[in-house]
Design a protein that fits this description.
heterotetramer, A mainly alpha, B mainly alpha, C mainly alpha, D mainly alpha, B: mainly alpha, 2 strands, D: mainly alpha, two-stranded antiparallel sheet, two-stranded antiparallel ribbon, 26 helices, globular
């Protein structure tokens, strides 16, 4: 068993283990144990990856394992990672780990909850390790579908409506994506050799330009829906608002990253010429996402809605950067995915914890919580500062990399929209501070909130894990950035070879 | 020509023998022993199913009227598996007091239809085909009206028999034109002599309409929902899976081997009808309250997806169609199995009645969910693979737009499948289905279905085997 | 090759019969009459087969045999249909086709 | 070469102190954290003085010019092949000077706070934040590249936010901190855009490369034009926008008066002496580019500075909150510094304005910190900010009174106090290059003297006010810093800035230009006299004056309604006319479209249900017509 497959096997084993348990406490412990192992495994993977690179291994992907699955269609179960996937796997395991602790107090159908949650995680891990489009797509859908139950059963508010909307829109995206993938597959051998789903092999041929024009928009749009591309983002506010804490964390933190990662790994990498030709359309859409999401967040009253719109804005930035098609911007996109993943998970975790205490998410009904629950409040402020791009926390690193990268684009149009996107940092500051000011600072407005208890141990584990990661990336971004940068080189080389700027 | 050559007709002969045995048992067994008729039939049929997998040789009989090949054997085996599941599932239903008198009739009729289907699939001549198709249809009308004390059942019976008579008429009318223009009814010869004249196309369209009726392709599908709703659940499941499957098999054989000359015409026909079928099927399914009617429309839209495998006329297409049917058998019978179990236990057949089912009968709900996800094409269950291959087959020939329409349709279908899932898991039932224990047969059938749903997808060997036995135009 | 009535006449007759049958199927309210209309359709098909066989392909008998089988199958079909119609009559106390429409939409 | 490696500890130590106090202080040693923080800062101050000594007196000069020394530099984040953000320490005259200023004032403020903040809730938090601020500010001035500067620029912004909002349960403090952060953030947007444009055109962030007067960066940037101005000009104007925000120049000054909601030591440190001069420092840091490659941008700097100084001085004359008066005075003085930069040239005697600006920055830090700490001492004693509620305090607070008087005299430009020298250099520089700005500065000089002494007389003389508790002098922890800073204010004018801190690093000769100096002293005295007449004793003159110039007084008193303008823009335009419509649009148009697709599907589904009528014959009809239609379609249309 290779190390990468373990990332799928361990969650599956955990699920199997949970299936045979009756006691809620044991279910929690087993989940935490399984995901703890997963976290350790991710650490091992990072270490193994870095040492392999240091040892001079310059292959595009490492730890490649390839098993023929469906011979007639040349479908393989093929896994492999480069720095980007390693980083994403790291992110996922952190968020999942934190998510387990954030949902420690789920009482209703606990067993089913953790099974669905870990199933979702399985899909995400599988997605990131796959280098075969078929398996990638398979895991992608595996990750999406448990959302329905997770939101529908354990959610709040208009949960059924939100769950349905979210599922249908995301599956709609994946439907469009499927056509794009099939298009790539059937154009993967213009020389008449065997068709393939393998990303690495497809990247070595150049798909006819007519096909690229057709399939780039489909593929990008397909992934874009999950990446909350305007105007297909509306599942996000409703979905996040209704979802239980851990699900919001996982969804905004990890699942939305599937969109960005896929757009980058498939749409841009495999169809670079089409991307180059048509990127302007999506650049406009993503720029709208970035600014529009931020403005949308200002006017919201519900904490989760604010964060959902903020995610639209931040994830828009990911797609925006990916479309800029240069190394720095793409590097920024990956960093932004990781950074946003961590901090939005942190946000949702905190919102969940606040909700668990105050039983409301309306900012107007809370106030002055800093005095009552200082630990959570300080964490909230830190999350906010990370979100608005404070240096020293991860958001800054990612955003600056994106902005500098995007601004290196040779065409004036792209630089001007970059300035537009840059302006989102101010709007972000406005809505973050608005919330912080109303929610945490000032006198305690609601007398029911005067005797709330601060974070419990498991909540602290969840939050501290996330803050630690956010700060680690923010303070010392070099290793992560260069790990991603090295992995981006082949992709960039390919893009540059095809589209000399 | 020795008697041994008849052995290539093994499937049909065994079925007929079994039918006779059941009949004999019915006649000679006394009241006490009759209780075992269903068990006897199931075991008998189980043996037949297993025997179907014994290696066999290809060949022809009756001067080419009967043709068998590895492909047809495969198709028959798939049908056998499905029919076996239906047999097992219907045992508890047959044990009910009102049905105990008619147990052997039920098996007898089912076995005859299955024999008809097998003949149809193995036909090398339109006469054999016609006899097969009628043998497969007429007894089913009797089965649809099986619940003779229920209005709906009678209505279903009459709707089925008259519609199918009309469709046979039209099919035959088309066939007569084909005969008139080619002068032969042998598949092989028709294929050679078929041109592209207007009369032949007219004949083909009429013929196609008759076949489309069996597969319930829009606009020839209208009988489906009513008959599915009215018939006893076991019969419905048989209709939706086995009858439909057999018709799909023969249609793909006919299109690929008899009508390759007018491939461009039938591709367009398929294009139009498949878009109509999935869309209309889905649109109707959205609103359904009766679970059987719901599954009827779902099965109509499934037929639309299946047509995607036809359209390319490629080997991959045929393989994906056969494979999808195998998956579809497991998935749909899984869903029907749950419906049957609940219907038998409580008589409830509405989606509303499923509210809160998970809290009383978790395993049934899970099986239902699995089956519905498979029907919707959600990984990692087999339905995902099935749909993926169908779409791949269509995309291989460049029908991207059709694939897009199809995948968008799957979203609608996902919506209504999720409605059922929602009912079971999320909705609070005021009078939920009580907790009940299923008997051995139900459990067995559902276990096989679940195993099928889970394994068929991952085990690539199944698809590869089917692919090797398939052929293109 | 016999002279006399040209083959077209048979075909026209068959077509008229076919559409009469269809018309009857669509308009008559009595289930038995509908069944008879179906028989009309099947018989028109028979005429087609026979005429084609006799006039165009006289050296083989495929059409002849086909129509024989069609007649036989039609009989079986009618038997089942009538049985069901009787059941309908028992349940609905009518054999008007429009009354057998409990299930719709 | 002298080894400057140890300078890494100068910013690092406060950072560690911040982490230490922030994470552990609350639980384990809430009382001790003040002492710890102060000791830490004391060490840094010592290091800074050593560094200054070594840099100015021991390091090697080339061609008589101080060299820019990169003491430490490491790549923090590689962006493109050429562009990388470094973290490092750059020593040159201005950064070393700033080092001294920051550590000195910061140390004073730390010591002062030990007394001032004693017993406050969140004592340890206060010192943690102060450490964070010190770290950020030191990082800012020591930055080796513009991006590092931006990073610390943001960090000082956030520490300022945290400190203004220190009394987080006070709604006005919360509002003020929010306002400060958002306004400066908006300005920083300009800074960032400026950096992007600059780096795109020059391919580097590095200060040494960028500001090398003979380097390629300066030569290149002037060439490319966009909308009539060179790209370099654009980028410098944008960069300056950041400076405007941080230094509270018009029109981004509105946060500064409100920022006085923070504890007074904070106002002294951040909003008087150090952070607010970051904008000046920024322009000085980029000065060669402004001067050589973007003269238009430099003019903008000059005019913005001049206007702000006049604007703020006028408002300061009408305010009654003593901290607000000081805040406007700060804004006015920074306007001076900006103006000085704006009129300066590069190199040698041309660079007089540059030198003067830095000089004034230095002296201003001393006397303004002194003023604020004095004000803090007063507030500490009488528990109010409003000078209308004070009077005759000279008896109760002798030390405060004396030091405050020194500071007032210094800011009024009375020789031989330090303010006289630095202000005189600025006036001289303006005199030689731009007479209009020169004239404005004369007016401002008079106004400054007037409002400072208005303040002084109202507080320490004027009517005898009755106090609840008899005011008493502050403890030694508070008075010692006052005394030290007063000494600094008196004597720092004699530091030979013309030898040490110049635009090109080379020293040059300056002499006192009497033609400029004498009128300026006179106008200062004139202002003092007027204030003496109006406020020495309780008199009706101020009210009469206010009545006479009713409208202009009202305008000035209401700060020319700038707050209202901002409120209008943010509340009305952004919130009501952009955000809410966006939110509405999202819910009711975009989302409704998505839901619309679903409901259309539903309604279509309902519409077509008639096909499934349950009537066998209708089914038959559809069947037949379907078959016939298909046939027609394929025989006649698509064949």
């Amino acid at each position: 068993m290779d190390i990468l497959t373990l990332f799928v096997v361990i969650p599956v084993l955990t699920i199997t283990g949970i299936l045979f348990l009756k006691d809620t406490r044991q279910v929690r412990l087993v989940s935490a144990f399984g995901m703890g192992i997963q976290l350790i495994l991710a650490g091992v993977l990072v270490f193994a990856y870095l040492s392999a690179r240091n040892a001079g291994n310059t292959e595009e992907m490492l730890f490649i394992k390839d098993y023929l699955w469906f011979k007639s269609l040349n479908i393989h179960y093929a896994v492999g990672v480069d720095g980007i996937s390693v980083a994403m796997i790291g992110l996922t395991s952190i968020v999942v780990f934190a998510g387990i602790f954030a949902s420690w107090e789920v009482e209703f159908l606990t067993k089913e909850f953790f099974i669905s949650l870990i199933l979702l995680a399985t899909g995400v891990f599988g997605f990131f390790i796959s280098i075969d489009l078929f398996t990638m797509f398979l895991f992608y859908e595996v990750a999406v579908i448990p959302m329905y139950l997770l939101i529908g059963i354990w959610g709040s508010g208009p949960k059924e409506y939100s769950a349905m909307k979210l599922t249908l829109m995301l599956m709609g995206g994946s439907a469009i994506l499927l056509v794009g993938l099939l298009g790539i597959y059937f154009n993967s051998a213009p020389g008449g050799t065997q068709l393939t789903f393998n990303i690495l092999e497809i990247s070595k041929v150049s798909i006819p330009i007519a096909a690229q024009r057709l399939f780039f928009p489909l593929t990008f749009l397909g992934f874009g829906v999950l990446g909350a591309l305007f105007p297909f983002h509306t599942w996000s506010p409703d979905g996040h608002a209704s979802a239980p804490t851990a699900v919001s964390m996982l969804h905004a933190g990890v699942l939305m990253k599937l969109g960005g990662y896929g757009a980058f790994r498939v749409a841009i990498f495999l169809l670079p010429e089409g991307a180059k030709e048509l990127s302007w359309i999506f650049i406009i859409l993503t720029s709208i996402s970035v600014v529009y999401g931020a403005f949308g967040a200002i006017a919201q009253k519900d904490l989760k809605y604010i964060n959902a719109y903020s995610s639209v804005s931040h994830c828009g930035l990911v797609l925006f950067a990916v479309l800029m098609m240069n190394k720095t911007a793409m590097n920024g996109a990956i960093l932004q995915m990781i950074s946003h993943g961590l901090m939005t998970a942190l946000f949702f975790a905190l919102i969940g914890m606040l909700y668990g205490r105050t039983h409301t998410r309306m900012i107007s009904e809370m106030g002055g919580l800093m005095k009552v629950i200082p630990f959570l409040s300080v964490c909230y402020v830190i999350a906010g500062l990370a979100s608005l791009g404070l240096p020293g926390l991860s958001g800054f690193v990612a955003e600056m990399t994106i902005f500098v990268g995007a601004f290196q684009h040779p065409e004036l149009f792209y630089r001007i929209v970059t300035i537009l996107a840059v302006s989102s940092i101010v709007i972000t500051a406005v809505y973050i501070l608005r919330v912080v000011a109303i929610l945490l600072l000032g006198p305690t407005t609601n007398e029911h909130h005067e005797h709330l208890t601060d974070a419990k141990w498991f909540e602290k584990i969840s939050v501290v894990t996330l803050i630690g990661s956010v700060a680690a990336i923010g303070l010392a971004p070099f290793w992560l950035s260069s790990m991603i940068g090295t992995s981006l080189q082949p992709i960039v080389d390919r893009i540059v070879a095809l589209n000399p700027f | 020509m020795s008697l041994g050559t008849f052995l290539i007709m093994r499937h049909e002969l065994l079925l007929i023998a079994a039918a006779l045995l059941v009949l004999i048992a019915e006649i000679f067994w006394n009241e006490d022993k009759r209780r075992y008729i269903s068990l006897f039939s199931v075991i008998l049929f189980g043996i037949i199913t297993i025997a179907g997998f014994l290696p066999s040789t290809a060949g022809t009989l009756f001067g080419g009227m009967y043709v068998t090949s590895a492909t047809t054997v495969l198709m028959k085996n798939i049908l056998n598996i499905g029919a076996l599941l239906v047999f097992i599932q219907s045992v508890p239903w047959l044990k009910k007091k009102e049905n105990s008198e008619k147990t052997s009739e039920y098996f007898l009729l089912l076995l005859s239809t299955l024999a008809g289907m097998n003949y149809m699939i193995s036909a090398g001549h339109f006469l054999m085909f016609y006899i097969g198709i009628e043998l497969a249809t007429i007894p089913i009308a009797a089965l649809a009206a099986f619940d003779s004390y229920k209005n709906k059942s009678a209505e279903a019976g009459i709707k089925l028999i008259l519609s199918s008579a009309l469709s046979s008429g039209i099919l035959l009318y088309g066939l007569s034109m084909i005969y008139g223009t080619t002068g032969t009814l042998y598949f092989k010869e028709v294929a050679e002599l078929f041109g592209n004249t207007s009369l032949q196309i007219l004949g083909f369209i009429f013929f196609f309409a008759g076949m489309a009726f069996k597969i319930s392709i829009v606009p020839f599908h209208l009988w489906t929902a009513d008959v599915y709703e009215g018939s006893p659940v076991s019969v419905t499941s048989y209709l939706s899976v086995i009858s439909k499957g057999a018709a799909v098999f023969i249609l793909i054989i006919l299109l690929f081997t008899v009508f390759p000359a007018i491939i461009s015409t039938w591709q367009k026909t398929i294009y139009v009808t498949s878009v109509l079928t999935m869309t209309i099927g889905n649109l109707f399914a959205i609103r359904q309250q009766n679970i059987k009617r719901f599954l009827a429309f779902s099965s109509i839209s499934q037929a639309g997806y299946i047509l995607l495998g036809f359209i390319g006329g490629n080997q991959l297409g045929m393989a994906s169609v056969i494979y999808y049917l195998l998956v579809y058998i497991f998935s749909n019978l899984g869903a029907f199995g749950v419906v049957i179990a609940i219907s038998n236990a409580t008589g409830k057949e509405n989606i509303d009645d499923y509210n809160g089912l998970y809290h009383t009968n978790p395993s049934l709900s899970l099986i239902m969910t699995l089956a519905l996800f498979s029907l919707a094409g959600i990984p990692p269950v087999a339905g995902f693979f099935g749909k993926f291959f169908l779409f791949t087959a269509a995309a291989e020939k460049g029908y991207y737009l059709l694939v897009l329409i199809a995948v968008l349709n799957t979203i609608i279908s996902l919506y209504y499948y999720l409605l059922v899932v929602k009912a079971m898991f999320i909705n609070k039932g005021e009078t939920p289905v009580e907790k009940f224990k299923s008997d051995f047969f139900t459990k067995l059938a559902l276990a096989i279905c679940v195993a099928g749903i889970v394994v068929t997808g991952f085990a690539s060997i199944i698809f590869e085997a089917i692919k090797n036995l398939s052929f293109g135009v | 090759m016999s002279t006399g009535i040209p083959v077209q006449y048979f075909l026209i007759l068959a077509t008229i019969m076919f559409f009469t049958g269809v018309y009857g199927f669509l308009t008559r309210r009595n289930l038995i009459t509908i069944l008879m209309s179906v028989e009309l359709i099947l018989n028109s098909v028979n005429i087609n087969f026979l005429a084609f066989n006799r006039y165009l392909y006289p050296h083989k008998l495929e059409g002849m045999f086909f129509s024989l089988f069609v007649i036989a199958v039609a009989a079986a079909e009618a038997a089942v249909a009538i049985a069901i119609i009787i059941n309908i009559y028992r349940r609905f106390s009518t054999i008007n086709v429009e009354d057998a429409s409990e299930m719709k939409y | 070469m002298i080894n400057f490696n140890y300078t890494i500890w100068i910013p690092l130590l406060p950072f560690l102190m911040f982490l230490f106090l922030g994470l552990a202080g609350h639980k384990y040693f809430p009382k001790l954290s003040g002492i710890l923080g102060t000791c830490g800062l004391g060490i840094i101050t010592l290091l800074s003085y050593i560094t200054a000594y070594k840099y100015f007196f021991l390091s090697e000069k080339i061609d008589g010019a101080y060299q820019k020394i990169t003491a430490v530099n490491t790549v923090w984040l590689q962006l493109t092949d050429k562009l990388h953000i470094d973290m490092g320490i750059l020593l040159d005259p201005i950064s070393v000077m700033m080092l001294v200023v920051i550590t000195t004032v910061s140390l004073m403020v730390h010591i002062y706070s030990l007394g001032y903040m004693k017993g406050e809730k969140g004592f340890e938090r206060f010192f943690a934040f102060l450490s964070l601020f010190s770290f950020s500010m030191l990082g800012l001035v020591l930055a080796t590249n513009i991006f590092q500067m931006y990073i610390f620029w943001e960090l000082v912004g956030v520490s300022s936010f945290l400190l203004i909002g220190f009394y987080y349960q006070k709604p006005s403090a919360v509002r003020a901190s929010k306002k400060a952060f958002i306004v400066t953030r908006f300005a920083d947007l300009g800074f960032l855009i400026g950096i992007l444009i600059l780096s795109f055109n020059t391919g580097t962030f590095d200060f040494i490369t960028l500001t090398d007067p003979s380097g390629t960066a300066i030569a290149q940037g002037g060439g490319i034009a966009f909308l009539g101005l060179s790209v370099m000009t654009w980028s410098m104007i944008f960069v300056f926008m950041g400076g405007i925000g941080k230094s509270a120049m018009f029109p981004f000054h509105i946060w500064l008066p409100d920022a006085m909601e923070g504890p007074t030591p904070v106002s002294a440190l951040i909003h008087a002496a150090t952070m607010v001069v970051a904008g000046v420092y920024l322009v000085a840091r980029m000065f060669p580019i402004y001067s050589l490659s973007a003269p238009v941008a430099l003019e903008v700097v000059g005019y913005v500075g001049a206007f702000s100084s006049l604007f703020a001085a006028v408002i300061a004359c009408t305010q009654t909150d003593i901290k607000r008066v000081l805040a406007y005075s700060t804004m006015s003085q920074i306007g001076y510094m900006m103006l000085a930069l704006g009129v300066s040239g590069y190199g040698g005697h041309e660079g007089l304005g540059y030198m003067a600006s830095m000089f004034h920055l230095f002296t201003h830090a001393m006397f303004k910190a002194l003023l604020f700490l004095g004000a803090g001492s007063i507030i500490h004693a009488v528990h109010t900010n409003h000078m209308t509620e004070m009077g005759g305090l000279r008896k109760y607070l002798p030390i405060t009174h004396l030091t405050f008087l020194i500071a007032c005299l210094t800011i009024a430009g009375i020789p031989p106090l330090s303010g006289f020298f630095s202000k005189d250099e600025i006036l001289a520089a303006a005199f030689h290059s731009n007479k209009l700005l020169f004239a404005v500065e004369y007016v401002v000089a008079g106004l400054t003297a007037f409002y400072m002494f208005r303040l002084y007389f109202s507080i320490f003389w004027g009517k005898e006010t009755h106090y609840h508790h008899t005011p008493h002098e502050a403890p030694a922890t508070m008075t010692i810093p006052l005394i030290i800073l007063a000494i600094g204010s008196v004597f720092s004018g004699f530091i030979p800035f013309n030898e040490l801190v110049t635009s090109d690093g080379k020293g040059f000769e300056t002499e006192l230009e009497l033609i400029v100096a004498i009128p300026s002293v006179l106008i200062g005295l004139f202002g003092i006299v007027i204030a003496f007449i109006m406020y020495k004793k309780e008199s009706a003159i101020p009210d009469k004056m206010a009545a006479t110039f009713k409208y202009s007084y009202k305008w000035a008193f209401n700060k020319f309604y700038m707050d209202e303008v901002y409120l209008f823009v943010t509340k009305k335009i952004i919130f009501r006319y952009i955000s809410q419509p966006v939110a509405w649009f999202d819910r009711h148009i975009v989302d409704a479209t998505m839901n619309g697709i679903a409901s259309v599907t539903q309604s279509v589904s309902l519409r077509i249900r008639g096909f499934q009528s349950g009537q066998l014959q209708k089914y038959g009809f559809v069947f037949i017509s379907g078959a016939i239609l298909l046939a027609i379609l394929f025989i006649y249309l698509w064949k």
